[in-house]
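Database export, one record per block. Field names are fixed; values are copied verbatim from the stored entry.
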Amino acid sequence: QVHLMESGGGLVQTGGSLRLSCTASEDTINSYTVGWFRRAPGREREFLGACVENECVAPYSHRFTASRDNGKNVVYLQMSSLWPTDTAVYYCAAKHGIRYDTGYPYWGQGTQVTVSD
């Protein structure tokens, strides 16, 4: 089992940027497929992007970029041009396997992102 921790959330103005980080407490995150998700109030959870081995995708929006730094044992989600509709709790999740949009057994506690208008 791996324990994940997100960081980097906070309050940002419309048009601003944030970079979220995902690390693992007891294990290296480098060996896992890591995905990013969010859940806004009253909405379903959304898949944002993921890193599978050394390939990263972020199909949800061109404003989002997923990346990983194996040397630092961290996976990032860079978000730019944020809008109030991006306000949500953002989660990273980990799994073994190459399918990256679903099937994650390990989840972080989430980090709140609030975009003010």
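Remark 1: The mean pLDDT is 95.
Remark 2: The radius of gyration is 13 Å.
End of record.
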